[in-house]
Amino acid sequence: MTLANLLVVAAAVFAIGLFGVLARRHAIGVLLSIELMFNAVNLAIVSFAWSRGLLAGVVLVLFGIAITVAEIAVGLALVLLASRVAKSVILDDLSELKG
Amino acid sequence: MRDLAFFGLAACLLAAALAVVTAKSLFRAAFALSAALVATAGFYLLLSAPLLAAVQILLYTGGVLTLVVFALVVAGANAEGAVWRKPVPAVFMSLAVFAVLAASARALPEPAPLRGLESGKDVGLLLFSDYLVPFELLSVLLLGAVFGALLLARKDRPE
Q1: What is the ipTM of this complex?
Q2: CATH number of the domain bearing residue A20
Protein backbone atom coordinates (compact mmCIF):
# COMPACT_ATOMS: atom_id res chain seq x y z
CA MET A 1 0.00 0.00 0.00
CA THR A 2 1.86 3.04 -1.30
CA LEU A 3 0.79 6.63 -1.78
CA ALA A 4 0.87 6.23 -5.58
CA ASN A 5 -1.43 3.18 -5.45
CA LEU A 6 -3.90 4.99 -3.21
CA LEU A 7 -3.91 7.99 -5.52
CA VAL A 8 -4.49 5.81 -8.59
CA VAL A 9 -7.50 4.20 -6.90
CA ALA A 10 -8.82 7.67 -6.02
CA ALA A 11 -8.24 8.84 -9.60
CA ALA A 12 -10.14 5.83 -10.97
CA VAL A 13 -13.12 6.49 -8.71
CA PHE A 14 -13.01 10.17 -9.68
CA ALA A 15 -13.03 9.29 -13.39
CA ILE A 16 -15.94 6.87 -12.94
CA GLY A 17 -17.87 9.59 -11.12
CA LEU A 18 -17.05 12.05 -13.90
CA PHE A 19 -18.51 9.64 -16.44
CA GLY A 20 -21.70 9.47 -14.37
CA VAL A 21 -21.95 13.26 -14.15
CA LEU A 22 -21.49 13.63 -17.90
CA ALA A 23 -23.66 10.77 -19.07
CA ARG A 24 -26.48 10.15 -16.57
CA ARG A 25 -29.86 11.45 -17.69
CA HIS A 26 -31.60 11.38 -14.29
CA ALA A 27 -30.83 14.35 -12.02
CA ILE A 28 -30.47 12.19 -8.89
CA GLY A 29 -28.08 9.92 -10.81
CA VAL A 30 -25.91 12.96 -11.47
CA LEU A 31 -26.02 13.87 -7.76
CA LEU A 32 -24.95 10.33 -6.81
CA SER A 33 -22.04 10.56 -9.26
CA ILE A 34 -21.01 13.90 -7.77
CA GLU A 35 -20.91 12.19 -4.38
CA LEU A 36 -18.65 9.55 -5.86
CA MET A 37 -16.23 12.18 -7.21
CA PHE A 38 -16.25 13.97 -3.89
CA ASN A 39 -15.50 10.71 -2.11
CA ALA A 40 -12.51 10.11 -4.38
CA VAL A 41 -11.12 13.56 -3.57
CA ASN A 42 -11.53 12.87 0.16
CA LEU A 43 -9.66 9.60 -0.23
CA ALA A 44 -6.81 11.42 -1.98
CA ILE A 45 -6.63 14.07 0.77
CA VAL A 46 -6.53 11.42 3.51
CA SER A 47 -3.85 9.51 1.60
CA PHE A 48 -1.67 12.61 1.45
CA ALA A 49 -2.34 13.35 5.12
CA TRP A 50 -1.39 9.77 6.00
CA SER A 51 1.82 9.83 4.00
CA ARG A 52 2.98 13.16 5.43
CA GLY A 53 1.61 12.67 8.96
CA LEU A 54 -0.52 15.82 8.77
CA LEU A 55 -3.64 15.79 10.94
CA ALA A 56 -4.90 18.98 9.26
CA GLY A 57 -5.86 16.81 6.26
CA VAL A 58 -8.25 14.82 8.45
CA VAL A 59 -9.83 18.05 9.72
CA LEU A 60 -10.17 19.25 6.12
CA VAL A 61 -12.01 16.08 5.15
CA LEU A 62 -14.31 16.39 8.18
CA PHE A 63 -15.29 19.88 7.03
CA GLY A 64 -15.67 18.62 3.48
CA ILE A 65 -18.05 15.84 4.53
CA ALA A 66 -20.26 18.28 6.46
CA ILE A 67 -20.35 20.69 3.51
CA THR A 68 -21.28 17.87 1.14
CA VAL A 69 -24.18 16.88 3.35
CA ALA A 70 -25.45 20.47 3.11
CA GLU A 71 -24.93 20.40 -0.65
CA ILE A 72 -26.82 17.15 -1.14
CA ALA A 73 -29.73 18.44 0.97
CA VAL A 74 -30.10 21.55 -1.19
CA GLY A 75 -29.51 19.56 -4.40
CA LEU A 76 -32.25 17.06 -3.56
CA ALA A 77 -34.60 19.92 -2.64
CA LEU A 78 -33.94 21.36 -6.10
CA VAL A 79 -34.68 17.98 -7.70
CA LEU A 80 -37.97 17.73 -5.79
CA LEU A 81 -38.84 21.27 -6.90
CA ALA A 82 -38.05 20.35 -10.51
CA SER A 83 -40.20 17.24 -10.30
CA ARG A 84 -43.13 19.37 -9.09
CA VAL A 85 -42.74 22.44 -11.31
CA ALA A 86 -41.40 20.93 -14.53
CA LYS A 87 -42.96 17.48 -13.94
CA SER A 88 -39.65 15.85 -14.85
CA VAL A 89 -36.28 15.05 -13.33
CA ILE A 90 -34.65 14.07 -16.64
CA LEU A 91 -31.99 16.65 -17.35
CA ASP A 92 -32.76 16.82 -21.09
CA ASP A 93 -36.27 18.05 -20.26
CA LEU A 94 -34.99 20.85 -18.03
CA SER A 95 -33.48 22.98 -20.77
CA GLU A 96 -35.59 26.16 -20.68
CA LEU A 97 -32.50 28.28 -20.07
CA LYS A 98 -30.81 27.00 -23.23
CA GLY A 99 -30.64 29.86 -25.74
CA MET B 1 -1.88 -8.45 5.21
CA ARG B 2 -2.12 -4.70 4.79
CA ASP B 3 -1.57 -5.02 1.05
CA LEU B 4 -4.19 -7.73 0.82
CA ALA B 5 -6.71 -5.49 2.60
CA PHE B 6 -5.75 -2.63 0.30
CA PHE B 7 -6.33 -4.57 -2.91
CA GLY B 8 -9.56 -6.11 -1.60
CA LEU B 9 -10.93 -2.71 -0.62
CA ALA B 10 -9.81 -1.19 -3.92
CA ALA B 11 -11.63 -3.93 -5.86
CA CYS B 12 -14.80 -3.40 -3.77
CA LEU B 13 -14.62 0.37 -4.18
CA LEU B 14 -14.14 0.26 -7.96
CA ALA B 15 -16.87 -2.35 -8.47
CA ALA B 16 -19.31 -0.30 -6.37
CA ALA B 17 -18.35 2.89 -8.20
CA LEU B 18 -18.98 1.26 -11.57
CA ALA B 19 -22.34 0.01 -10.30
CA VAL B 20 -23.28 3.58 -9.26
CA VAL B 21 -22.90 4.91 -12.79
CA THR B 22 -24.19 1.85 -14.68
CA ALA B 23 -27.20 0.67 -12.65
CA LYS B 24 -30.49 1.14 -14.48
CA SER B 25 -32.53 1.54 -11.32
CA LEU B 26 -31.40 4.47 -9.22
CA PHE B 27 -32.28 2.58 -6.04
CA ARG B 28 -29.55 0.12 -6.99
CA ALA B 29 -27.23 3.03 -7.77
CA ALA B 30 -27.92 4.53 -4.34
CA PHE B 31 -27.15 1.27 -2.56
CA ALA B 32 -24.02 0.82 -4.67
CA LEU B 33 -23.02 4.31 -3.58
CA SER B 34 -23.45 3.28 0.05
CA ALA B 35 -21.21 0.27 -0.62
CA ALA B 36 -18.62 2.59 -2.15
CA LEU B 37 -18.82 4.91 0.86
CA VAL B 38 -18.37 1.99 3.27
CA ALA B 39 -15.38 0.77 1.25
CA THR B 40 -13.90 4.27 1.54
CA ALA B 41 -14.47 4.10 5.30
CA GLY B 42 -12.45 0.88 5.19
CA PHE B 43 -9.66 2.81 3.48
CA TYR B 44 -9.80 5.42 6.23
CA LEU B 45 -9.41 2.67 8.84
CA LEU B 46 -6.45 1.32 6.90
CA LEU B 47 -4.95 4.82 6.78
CA SER B 48 -5.25 5.00 10.60
CA ALA B 49 -8.04 7.60 10.65
CA PRO B 50 -10.79 5.72 12.55
CA LEU B 51 -12.62 8.94 13.45
CA LEU B 52 -13.12 9.71 9.76
CA ALA B 53 -14.34 6.19 9.12
CA ALA B 54 -16.97 6.59 11.84
CA VAL B 55 -18.08 10.00 10.54
CA GLN B 56 -18.18 8.64 7.00
CA ILE B 57 -20.50 5.78 7.92
CA LEU B 58 -22.73 7.68 10.36
CA LEU B 59 -23.15 10.98 8.58
CA TYR B 60 -22.47 10.19 4.97
CA THR B 61 -23.74 6.69 4.41
CA GLY B 62 -26.56 7.01 6.92
CA GLY B 63 -27.68 10.60 6.35
CA VAL B 64 -27.13 11.08 2.65
CA LEU B 65 -28.52 7.70 1.70
CA THR B 66 -31.73 8.31 3.64
CA LEU B 67 -32.18 11.64 1.86
CA VAL B 68 -31.47 10.14 -1.56
CA VAL B 69 -33.87 7.24 -1.11
CA PHE B 70 -36.56 9.64 0.09
CA ALA B 71 -36.03 11.84 -2.98
CA LEU B 72 -36.13 8.79 -5.24
CA VAL B 73 -39.46 7.72 -3.77
CA VAL B 74 -40.93 11.18 -4.39
CA ALA B 75 -39.34 11.97 -7.75
CA GLY B 76 -39.37 8.52 -9.33
CA ALA B 77 -36.34 6.28 -9.74
CA ASN B 78 -36.67 5.11 -13.32
CA ALA B 79 -36.49 7.16 -16.48
CA GLU B 80 -37.92 5.77 -19.69
CA GLY B 81 -35.39 5.05 -22.39
CA ALA B 82 -31.63 4.97 -22.11
CA VAL B 83 -29.71 5.31 -18.84
CA TRP B 84 -27.08 7.54 -20.45
CA ARG B 85 -26.97 10.38 -22.87
CA LYS B 86 -24.00 10.29 -25.30
CA PRO B 87 -21.94 7.79 -23.28
CA VAL B 88 -19.05 7.46 -25.77
CA PRO B 89 -17.65 11.01 -25.48
CA ALA B 90 -18.15 10.80 -21.71
CA VAL B 91 -16.08 7.60 -21.59
CA PHE B 92 -13.26 9.26 -23.54
CA MET B 93 -13.42 12.34 -21.35
CA SER B 94 -13.21 10.39 -18.10
CA LEU B 95 -10.46 8.11 -19.47
CA ALA B 96 -8.44 11.20 -20.37
CA VAL B 97 -8.93 12.64 -16.87
CA PHE B 98 -7.96 9.30 -15.34
CA ALA B 99 -4.82 9.10 -17.49
CA VAL B 100 -3.68 12.57 -16.43
CA LEU B 101 -4.41 11.98 -12.73
CA ALA B 102 -2.82 8.52 -12.65
CA ALA B 103 0.26 9.69 -14.52
CA SER B 104 0.76 12.58 -12.11
CA ALA B 105 0.23 10.24 -9.13
CA ARG B 106 2.90 7.92 -10.53
CA ALA B 107 5.25 10.86 -11.06
CA LEU B 108 5.03 11.94 -7.40
CA PRO B 109 8.07 11.13 -5.30
CA GLU B 110 7.15 8.56 -2.67
CA PRO B 111 7.69 10.11 0.79
CA ALA B 112 10.54 8.12 2.29
CA PRO B 113 9.31 7.43 5.83
CA LEU B 114 5.54 7.03 5.85
CA ARG B 115 4.62 8.99 8.93
CA GLY B 116 1.05 7.79 9.51
CA LEU B 117 -1.55 9.62 11.55
CA GLU B 118 -2.06 9.98 15.28
CA SER B 119 -5.16 9.42 17.34
CA GLY B 120 -8.62 10.94 17.05
CA LYS B 121 -8.05 12.89 20.24
CA ASP B 122 -5.59 15.16 18.45
CA VAL B 123 -8.11 15.74 15.67
CA GLY B 124 -10.61 16.95 18.27
CA LEU B 125 -8.06 19.24 19.87
CA LEU B 126 -7.12 20.65 16.45
CA LEU B 127 -10.78 21.16 15.57
CA PHE B 128 -11.42 23.19 18.72
CA SER B 129 -8.22 25.21 18.72
CA ASP B 130 -6.80 26.07 15.29
CA TYR B 131 -10.00 25.43 13.36
CA LEU B 132 -12.56 26.82 15.80
CA VAL B 133 -13.79 29.65 13.55
CA PRO B 134 -14.35 27.44 10.46
CA PHE B 135 -16.07 24.95 12.77
CA GLU B 136 -18.55 27.57 13.98
CA LEU B 137 -19.04 28.90 10.45
CA LEU B 138 -19.88 25.36 9.41
CA SER B 139 -22.81 25.28 11.83
CA VAL B 140 -24.13 28.48 10.21
CA LEU B 141 -23.72 26.89 6.79
CA LEU B 142 -25.66 23.79 7.88
CA LEU B 143 -28.44 25.97 9.29
CA GLY B 144 -28.54 27.90 6.00
CA ALA B 145 -28.72 24.65 4.05
CA VAL B 146 -31.66 23.44 6.17
CA PHE B 147 -33.54 26.71 5.62
CA GLY B 148 -32.67 26.72 1.92
CA ALA B 149 -33.83 23.16 1.41
CA LEU B 150 -37.08 23.82 3.28
CA LEU B 151 -37.71 27.00 1.28
CA LEU B 152 -37.08 25.26 -2.04
CA ALA B 153 -39.07 22.13 -1.36
CA ARG B 154 -42.16 23.48 0.42
CA LYS B 155 -45.50 23.32 -1.33
CA ASP B 156 -47.14 26.72 -0.66
CA ARG B 157 -44.64 28.95 -2.42
CA PRO B 158 -45.65 32.63 -2.44
CA GLU B 159 -45.42 33.86 -6.02
Answers
A1: 0.90
A2: 1.10.287.3510
As for how many domains chain A has, the answer is 1
- What are the extents of the domains in chain B? 1-78, 118-159
Q: Structural domain of residue A27, as residue ranges?
A: 3-93
Question: Number of A:B CB contacts under 8 A?
Answer: 246
**CB–CB of B145 and A53 under 8 A?**
no
pLDDT digits (tens, 9 = 90+) for B63-105: 888 888 888 888 876 666 677 888 889 999 999 999 999 999 8
Model confidence pLDDT, tens digit, residues A61-91: 999 998 988 888 899 888 888 888 888 888 8
SS3 A77: helix
**A7: how many CB neighbours lie within 10 A of its CB?**
22
Q: Is A86 on the interface with B (CB under 8 A)?
A: no
Rounded to 10 deg, the angle between the B2-22 and A3-23 helix axes is 10
For A57, how many CA atoms within 13 A lie in the half-sphere containing its CB?
21
Measure in Å the smallest separation between the Cα of A31 and chain B Cα atoms. 9
